[in-house]
Amino acid sequence: MGERIGVYPGTFDPITLGHIDIIRRGVHLVDQLVIGVTTNPSKEPMFSLSERLAMVKREIAGLANGKIQVVEFNSLLMDFAESQNASMIIRGLRAVADFEYEFQMAGMNQQLNDDIETVFLMADVSLQPIASRLVKEIARYGGSIDKFVTPAVAADVKRHLEGEAGA
User: Fold this and answer.
1) In b/e form, how buried is each residue of 18-30, taking b as 16+ CB within 10 angstroms?
2) 165, 167, 129: which is closest to 16 by C-alpha?
3) Residues with Cβ < 8 Å from 159, sequence gap 6 or more?
4) Given this model, what pLDDT does residue 165 score?
5) Where are the beta strands (DSSP E) in the chain?
6) Sign of the alpha-carbon torsion through 52, 54, 58, 63
7) Mean of the pLDDT values across residues 25-45?
8) Nearest Cα to 33, choosing from 49, 41, 22, 44?
9) Is this model's pTM higher than 0.85 or not?
10) Whole-angstrom Cα Rg for the chain
11) Residues with active-site annotation
């Protein structure tokens, strides 16, 4: 059996403590974890792709030396997973609503390539309500996001919002 490679895809706009929790736990399931940072046409990101890549790389620095790489992709997830020689896709779940969507996606992905398994990890109970979309909304209305992201990410969000206000 060769090296077990897992892909953890997402927009990470911004990366939250929930994402970091899934990364910390997911890296133990594989020999190599590829964090795929992607665009999503149905979402309007706060941060550019290059900003999100840099943010994710900074936030996971020091986790599992050499076992994690961060790359961008803009393709079907299964095509990306195949290009990385992945045997599994790691997805985080927060609630029942997530499960319904993720279950449907896993079924579609299995139809595209049944050699790649989807593995679901529940976020830590204290982190389950966190969603990047809600973090951005709280920040836009002046609320504190310190419980949901690292201090560096909170500063990134604040700096970005200040830039929007000045534009």
Assistant:
1) bbbbbbeebbeeb
2) 129
3) none
4) 65
5) 5-10, 32-38, 68-73, 88-93, 117-122
6) positive
7) 91
8) 22
9) yes
10) 16
11) 19, 43, 94, 132
